[in-house]
Amino acid sequence: MPSKNMTFEPNANKDFFSKLNLFVQTHTALMAVIIAAILYIITIIINPKGMNTVAIGNIILLTVILSIPAAGQTMVLISGGMDFSVGAIMSATAVLTTYTMKGENGHFLTVLIISLAIGAFVGFLNGVCCVKIGLPAMIVTMAISNIVTRMQYILTQGVLSGKASPLFSSTVKFKLFGVVPHIVVYALIIWPIVFYLLKRSRFGKQLYMVGNNANAARLNGVRVTKIQVLSYVFSGMLAAFAGMLGAAYMSTARCQIFDDYAYQSLIAVIIGGTTFAGGSGSYEGSIAGSLVMILLSNLLTTLNPTQPVRNVLNAAILILLLVLYNRGKAVRQ
Amino acid sequence: MKFRKISAAVIAGAMILAFAGTAMAGDAAAKPLKLASHNAVVEGNPYRVRYELDMQEAAADAINYGYEVSYNSFVANWDQSTETQQLQNSINEGYDIIVNDPVATTGLDPIIEAAQDAGIIYINADCAYMSTDVNVLNILTDQEYLGYKTGLYAGEVLGEGAKVVMIAALEGNQANTDRQRGFEKAMAEYNMEVVASGNHDWDTTKSQQTMAEILNSGVEFDGVLVSQCAENAFEAFDAAGVAYPGFIGFGDTGAYMQKMLEVNKDQVVTPYIVLSNPPGVGATAFNFALNLYEGKELKEGIFAEGFEDTHQIWIKSKVCYTDKDVAAGTQIDGMSIEEYANSYEAGDSISFWLTKDEVAEQYFK
């Protein structure tokens, strides 16, 4: 009589993998944290000196900056859209920040109000074009980001000018106890607001409903257009604020300085478990995804490959992560 | 009263006619010339923005030599087929001078020959065009010198066997290759060791991020060799809250010059070097073209050693100073270094270009 173990082993393996698959699919944010931890452990194994307060402070700082445009991107993706203009908005407000502050304290409020207004306006334009007019989100947001970029050149003639104020820079860069950068204070304000918006507010609940099934949401009395346009407006405003923080971190800002953040934030959000299909995802996942992005870049610097090899490795790892994490099926409309 | 009014009107009319006549006579004296400036990229690159602004200044300055230059700029956005198409259009539209900062080091032979057959003065500027099958003049900044000079000063300051971080510019770019050759030559002379490296691709954000990640790695080093974008690499030390390095260089922007003056105000904390990689090299190339247009001949032996077959003329960096020059009270263009540094906007690079007469004197028979 064959052993029971032999008979059931394949099924046991299958069971294990299906459970693992289910765990990965249902705990995407946790998985992003695990990946981040693995990346950091590999970095430390390769270079034990990599575990130091400077590194921890820098990682926190860069993760916070990336997590802010990622918040807006998360909202847009949950609603079923996509926003490629966050990088251009960040660059525009970074340029505006240095151009207006000119290295002098006392302009923060002016810059904040103008930046948020710019972000809201660009987000509104994105929303109207994508949702109201029904143009493809990817093309519209890219086209609008192009306009935002051209506006930077009109303002500056392409010449880098001005500097972030010393006080504002210190609120981002200086470190508490030599480890925790002051930017954490901004995170402690913005992160809870985003969590509230997504998890507790009516807007958040309607956002998930719209992303899951826009028709069903509409039949339930949700003003789908308004919710989707609002997600773009929030995305624009968050990107605008992230641009200001970026300018404080860099001190100076040239045109298009943060354009790459459009892709980085999108990838961070997807690694964090928010899918292109819409209707699912979380901000904690996006923060963890941002951490993965920063730690991956850190690891590649530690490995010290040549630039082309670094680019190939970076792309290959990101594609692998995207394949693993963006396999959620779209909900039937 | 009426007579006075009529007299005043007549005098005013006569003055207007006289001014108009003078202006027209002036215009008639200036020879019209069409200049096409082709560039691989402009937007997003402060160096190339300044390159085009300097070119415009040089074109306007040509009026002093009897030329009324109409200037047009064409940008290929790193696409060689667009570049070829734009160059062909310039040939068709009868430009007299084409100055090209090329997308790639080869691939334009037929179009260069077509321009030269059409009697156009075609000059390559800033980035080398390496084909030996066409006779094209390359007007370039001496990039090897920038790397070598920086490396030498680093060696002088840090001493024999120092450990350094090397942040290069863009892998595969000719200017970067030449610069790295200079850096490596100097590093070999002082037996310096590169303990960490990266590329910033001339991207300020990347320069800061690369330096931040190298600091994260905990690697110990004495100084930082960086191929421009030094102000951003230096900013990473501020952001990380760590001690400044024992050396940094080279940089060439207002932000870098001002920051280093501020850091070393009371005592030398971080020795540094400022070197100009002038965007005005395009404007200098235009003045080579003007001399060639007048039929002048180049002097013998002016091509860079080892690059005679590609007709490369390397313009030396005109502005070069270190912290020692600041302490010694050295002057640049009749200004103290502090005044000179503060005369630049944060992101503006040090620039200069040789006038038509200077080019004629130094490089033509």
Strand order of the largest sheet of chain B: 2-1-3-4-5-11
Catalogue the unreliable spans of chain A: 1-6
- What is the number of helical segments of chain B per DSSP (H or I, 4+ residues)? 13
Q: Please name the fourth-level CATH homologous superfamily of the largest domain in chain B.
A: Response regulator
Secondary-structure element pattern of chain B, one letter each:
HEHEHEHEEHEHEHEHEHEHEEHEEHH
The helical percent of chain B reads 40-55%
Largest sheet of chain A: 2 strands, antiparallel
N- to C-terminal separation of chain A? 52 Å
Distance between the termini of chain B: 66 Å
Largest sheet of chain B: 6 strands, parallel
Large-scale geometry of chain A? globular
CATH fold field value of chain A: ABC transporter involved in vitamin B12 uptake, BtuC
Estimated structural class of chain A: mainly alpha
Name the features.
heterodimer; A: 333 residues; mainly alpha; ABC transporter involved in vitamin B12 uptake, BtuC; 14 helices; 75% helix; disordered N terminus; B: alpha/beta; Rossmann fold; 2 domains; 6-stranded parallel beta sheet
